[in-house]
Design brief:
This is DNA (cytosine-5-)-methyltransferase. Keywords: Methyltransferase, Restriction system, S-adenosyl-L-methionine, Transferase. One of its GO terms (molecular function) is DNA (cytosine-5-)-methyltransferase activity. It comes from Paracoccus litorisediminis. It catalyses: a 2'-deoxycytidine in DNA + S-adenosyl-L-methionine = a 5-methyl-2'-deoxycytidine in DNA + S-adenosyl-L-homocysteine + H(+). Helices cover 30% and strands 13% of the residues. It is of the alpha/beta class. The protein folds into 2 domains: 8-186 and 426-439, Rossmann fold; 208-396, no CATH class. It has a 6-stranded mixed sheet, sandwiched between helices. Strand 1, helix 1 and strand 2 form a beta-alpha-beta unit. Helix 1 packs across helix 13 (429-439). The chain is elongated and about 75 Å long. The two termini are 41 Å apart. The model is unreliable at 83-94 and 448-457 (pLDDT under 50).
Length: 457
């Protein structure tokens, strides 16, 4: 295999935007096969790398088909689907018939083609999934093929890139891993300013309701006394003034016990101190969404703790919180805007100094040292840059998110939302390169240590 112009040949399974390809190309590898079932990304892979990617790996349905269609190669890479193992999903693992069993397609290609090395990537929860049995199963199956296997997790910020995004990496070799060492993690400071491109502003306007919610929580921060340490727990404004039961009983328990009156005439109050002397349907709307699910007869300890902490915080600070509620009527906002996560303890309380993200768990406020973890964003979850960071409040652009994945040199999907989603599913090319150059020491010329990322525009 190979020519004088290439150090090694590789295949790129579940290729996505081609993060593995970018990394291994920089080490003088040559991609000889890729697989990507999403049609737009499959077409884009041809544009970026000149390879007409295979579609659905399930169509490599037997050893003969694999042997015929997958070329010989030195290195196999695969970021196999993570949703079945993610904390954010149903965690069905291998029992997910649509995606969870796709690891076994990777196993089939390794078994038939016998490349010298592999690098696999997934969410870190795969190491703990099913009580650790998923990790044990993966390693056992790979070792049964004759591979030595090691596992570690890394985040881009370990390599001087301003993004915290932990991912698990499995490496394997038929030649043993006695001489393999994981790359060193660095704890040097990072700044999100390194990836901002001021000449290419976001073309999508931030919705007015989102801007108003940012203003509302910005005013909350301004009103908070400087001597007050803001909570490290999520701030749930809907618990301000609430007294409904949550310890020995829940609203759902009362509705079962008192099916006609429910919480009426019991002296309890709902969100923001609203009266519960009303109809059952109205009671449902006046209990926070995290506490009004029918059949939810007991709350988990973490939820009880957050409810208690927020009620105590309100009682100790209502002298400035009540005027804030009167000014902004947070109860008129959707539930996700009624919550805030303050991840910038000790910083000046100007909300425009920070990176913001709207999540189901609330408006997250992060220091400008790193971006929120790039995930397969919905339209509302794209990070928002405060005005003091970017000149005006705006979404991070796909080009800036590509820099966070060290994929700034490739063409992205034309649709911003398609680009954000693909970047959220991509592997970080810098992290992969750091791992690969140590794994493939016998195939490539050694390179110097990676310099910290510095992107200016």
């Amino acid at each position: 295999m190979g020519t004088s112009k290439e150090a090694f040949r590789f295949v790129d399974l579940f290729a996505g935007l081609g993060g593995f390809h970018v990394a291994l190309d920089e080490l003088d590898g040559r991609g000889v096969f890729a697989a990507e079932r999403e049609p737009k990304l499959k077409a884009l892979y041809k544009v970026n790398f000149g390879i007409d990617a295979w579609g659905d790996l399930n169509e490599l349905s037997g050893d003969e088909i694999i042997a015929l269609n997958v070329p010989d190669h030195h290195v196999l890479t695969a970021g196999f689907p993570c949703q079945p193992f993610s904390k954010a999903g149903d965690q069905l693992g291998f029992e997910d018939t649509d995606q969870g069993n796709l690891f076994f397609k990777v196993h089939d290609v390794l078994r038939v083609k016998r490349p010298q090395h592999f690098i696999l990537e997934n969410v870190p929860n795969i190491l703990k999934h099913d009580g650790g049995r998923t990790r044990i199963t993966i390693i056992r199956l790979l070792e049964e093929l004759g591979y030595s296997v090691k596992v570690e997790h890394f985040s881009p910020h370990d390599f001087g890139i301003p993004q915290v995004r932990d991912r698990a990496y499995f490496v394997g070799s038929l030649q043993g891993l006695d001489h393999f060492e994981w790359p060193a993690k660095h704890k040097d400071p990072t700044e999100i300013q390194w990836v901002l491109r001021h000449e290419g502003q976001s073309t999508r306007a931030i919705p007015e309701q989102t801007l108003r919610a940012i203003d509302m929580w910005g005013d909350f921060l301004r009103r908070s006394p400087a001597s007050l340490k803001l909570p490290s727990f999520p701030i749930w404004a809907m618990e301000f003034g609430a007294t409904y039961p949550y310890l020995d009983e829940t609203p759902a328990g009362v509705w079962v016990r008192r099916p006609v009156r429910g919480l009426r005439r019991m002296g309890f109050k709902g969100s923001f101190g609203q009266s519960l002397d009303c109809s059952f349907d109205e009671q449902l709307t006046r209990i926070p969404s995290h506490a009004n699910r029918l059949g939810d007869l007991n709350f988990p300890q973490w939820k009880r703790t957050f409810i208690r902490q927020n009620r105590e915080f309100y009682q100790a600070n209502r002298h400035w919180i009540d005027p804030w509620i009167a000014r902004w009527s947070p109860q008129s906002f959707p539930s996700s805007f009624q919550k805030m996560e303050w991840n910038a303890q000790g910083e000046d309380r100007d909300i425009d100094n920070f990176v913001l993200q709207v999540r189901a768990s609330g408006l997250r406020v992060k220091r400008p040292t790193t971006s929120p973890s790039l995930i397969a964003f919905t339209q509302t979850q794209v990070p928002i840059l405060g005005a003091n960071l970017a000149g005006e409040r705006r979404y991070m652009t796909p080009a800036e998110c590509a820099e966070l994945q060290c994929l700034g040199g490739i063409q992205l999907p034309a649709s911003d939302i398609d680009a954000y989603k693909a970047l959220g599913n991509a592997v970080n090319a810098r992290v992969v390169k750091a791992i690969a150059e140590r794994l493939l020491h016998g195939l490539i010329r050694p390179t110097s240590d990676l310099e910290p990322l510095r992107v200016t525009g």
